[in-house]
């Protein structure tokens, strides 16, 4: 597994017992490469970076998944207290890392399933003009997860409360940096790769998952 400021997050993501597409979604969230209006506006001059649903001035990943009214209501239906939802973060990955220090593996997988449904609902609104109510989003996530649990403190959390801070260092001007993360389990393996330049601009990315026993 590669080193970086959130290396424990990447390891935990590949440990989640959920669909490969939701692992892939979680990986995209961690690297801030979901196509929010803020992300598109950073590479397309004059593009409106506001939220198309609630009218907020800036639609970041954190806003789309946690702060927008529909997503916020869906999280509330999942049992989140207002204090947890209202806590402020700069980036979505920081919020998810804090959550991983409270939830066990199954509860975290259920949460990512709900966020994946929230993101799909956002895209359906933009591209199809259809937005479902928070109750429908919740019911879809609940069905997909088969017994969604948002607050489970009975088992050991995914991440330890003791953290070691590491910082991603940008490459010299004119160079690119390739980060590769991999986690190998007994019967599965997940990996992800991302290429960024010295301005932290994502030039390319990819991920994959294999569900079979690996031999060394």
Please summarize what this structure is:
The chain has 216 residues and is α+β, with helices and mostly antiparallel strands. It has helices at residues 7-15, 20-30, 37-41, 61-67, 69-77, 82-86, 92-100, 105-128, 134-145; strands spanning 176-184, 189-197, 202-210. Helix 4 crosses helix 5 and helix 5 (69-77) crosses helix 9 (134-145).
Structural overview:
Residues 8-73 form the Reverse transcriptase zinc-binding domain. By secondary structure, the protein is α+β, with helices and mostly antiparallel strands. The chain has one domain. The chain has helices at residues 7-15, 20-30, 37-41, 61-67, 69-77, 82-86, 92-100, 105-128, 134-145; strands at residues 176-184, 189-197, 202-210. The protein is globular, with a radius of gyration of 17 Å.
Distance between the termini: 17 Å
Uncertain spans: 147-154
Structural class estimated from helices and strands: alpha+beta
Total domains: 1
Q: Shape from CA axes?
A: globular
* Strand line-up across the major sheet: 1-2-3
Oligomer designation = single chain
Cα radius of gyration in angstroms: 17 Å
Strand content: 5-15%
Descriptive key words:
single chain, 216 residues, alpha+beta, 42% helix, 12% strand, globular
